[in-house]
Specification:
186 residues, four-stranded mixed β-sheet, two-stranded antiparallel sheet, 6 strands
Length: 186
C-alpha cells in the first residue's frame, strides 16, 4: 500500500470513528474497568457489555466506541469530590448506563451512526455507592437508579456542545440530592 493511500485510509478511519486516541472499544479485554485510584473518590464500573446503552443498541459498534464511559466516570469523580466531607472517601460503581438518545438505523441507512435525541430516550444510570468517614466507618451506602425524564427541558448547566451534557446534568442532580451539603457549606 502506498504511503498516500495508507494516509487516506487512516484519515477515513478517524473520520468514521473506527479509530480513536483512547483505543476505542470499551468491550476489549484490556479496556479499563475503573479509573486509576486518585483522591477521595474511586469510580469503577461493571461489564459494559451489560449496559443498556450497549445491550439494546441498534448500533452496538458505535455504542462501544470511544471513551464516553471514562469521561462520565471522571466527571462523576470530580463532581462527587466537591461534595464530600473532608477526610471522607466515596466508592462508586456504575452498574448500568443508558445514554440520552438512541440510534435509529431504520430512519435512513446514512443515519445509522447518528444518535437521535428525543424526549422518550432519557438518560439513565444505576450507581452503587459507599461513603466512609476518616476512620473507615460506613456513613452512607446504597444503590440508586438515576434518570432525568425531562432532560430536554433543562437550561444548560453544562456545556451545550458537550455530547455527554444530558448525562452530566443527571449526575449533578443526583449528587446534589444524595450529598446535599457541599464542602464549602460545611
Amino acid at each position: 500500500m502506498s504511503p498516500r493511500l495508507a494516509s487516506l485510509f487512516f484519515a477515513l478511519a478517524l473520520a468514521t470513528g473506527t479509530a480513536s486516541a483512547t483505543g476505542g472499544d470499551m468491550l476489549a479485554a484490556n479496556a479499563p474497568r475503573a479509573l486509576p485510584a486518585s483522591g477521595p473518590v474511586n469510580v469503577a464500573w461493571s461489564d459494559p457489555s451489560r449496559f443498556g446503552d450497549i445491550r439494546t443498541s441498534s448500533n452496538r459498534s458505535a455504542s462501544t466506541r470511544g471513551d464516553w464511559l471514562v469521561q462520565l466516570a471522571s466527571y462523576m469523580r470530580k463532581q462527587a469530590a466537591k461534595r464530600l466531607t473532608p477526610g471522607n472517601r466515596l466508592e462508586l460503581t456504575i452498574l448500568d448506563i443508558q445514554r440520552a438518545g438512541r440510534y435509529e438505523p431504520w430512519a435512513s441507512p446514512a443515519g445509522q451512526d447518528i444518535r437521535v435525541i428525543r424526549e422518550n430516550y432519557p438518560p439513565m444510570m444505576v450507581v452503587q455507592f459507599r461513603e466512609l468517614d476518616a476512620s473507615g466507618t460506613v456513613v452512607a451506602e446504597g444503590e440508586r437508579r438515576i434518570t432525568d425524564p425531562a432532560f430536554l427541558l433543562h437550561a444548560g448547566s453544562v456545556n451545550d456542545s458537550d455530547p455527554l451534557r444530558y448525562e452530566k446534568r443527571m449526575i449533578d442532580s443526583w449528587l446534589q440530592r444524595e450529598f446535599p451539603e457541599s464542602v464549602s457549606a460545611r
